[in-house]
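Course assignment 3, question 2. Fill in each field.
Student: A.L.
Task: Predict the tertiary structure for the chain below.
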Amino acid sequence: MITYYVQRDGVTERLDKIDPDWLRPGSGILVWADVQVPTADDGIVLRDVFNLHPLAVQDALDLLQHPKVETYPGLLYVVLHGINFKSATDEFTTHDTDFFLTREFLVTVHDGQRRSIEEICNLCLSNSLVMREGTVALMHRIVDRMVDHYRPSVDELEQRLNQIEDAVIETPSNQLTREILTIKRDISAMRRIVLPQRDVVGRLSRREFEVIDQEMSYRFRDVFDQLVRMSDDAIIFQERVTGILDAHLTSVSNQLASVSKVLAALAVILGPLTIVTGAFGMNLLLPIMPGGERAQFWWVVGGMGVITSSAYYAFRRKGWL
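Answer field:
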């Protein structure tokens, strides 16, 4: 579904259709086409009405593109991602938004669930000055809002990382292994998205493209600085989660070693008892022990007690129990 936002005569309107003549240079009309959940019919409109390159349209219809920037004749094609992390469900997702930018129009393609797009749409209708600044400024507003939404998600991810780190230190358990590996995967996904996105916005801030003037490059540079800080956070998170996993595995190994040590000590303590009871389990009188069968029974029990007590005392002195 395509929704059009048109700036003409100082007024921003929301329309379902547009006149193709509005897209021509010098028309004095700015058009923003927002494509939500694109279909094959929407792709035909983008190719035939907006004269977008077929390869770029094909990439836009595929909602699994990595951040990138490409140039076509008179057109700038940019792919950026929004992120969302829900600590309650340990769910970390990224969704790409495609931008087609010229001086006359802006086209955005996404899955229909982008908060940044919805917020800027409402802003355009409530304030006509938003689109009056031009298509590049409009794109900057969307990108800036997307990056602003990064910070809460990054903070949630960091908070979850702190909780797992405390749990590894205070209450280590085997269940933490799954949580650590899950958040390690999420951090890897965040790093895989933020780093190339930082490079894309960096190119937009260097006046590498003719459509972006000096003033707009300053604005994109501010967004670039935010992404640089977040990419540094992603690297730090990656190092932290690696250290947490190592500490957890060490803790589990120590617990296993402690259990093995206790079992070995118990085996040593109970081993002599098994030998004694096996050796003296016969109904025979032993000449080395005074008294009858009843007395010899108590001699054996007393000897077993002495052996057990001695082994236990020795292990206690060495700190094994």
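Instructor remarks: Strands lie at 2-8, 11-15, 30-36, 68-72, 75-86, 91-101, 105-110. The longest helix spans residues 214-279.
Grade: pending
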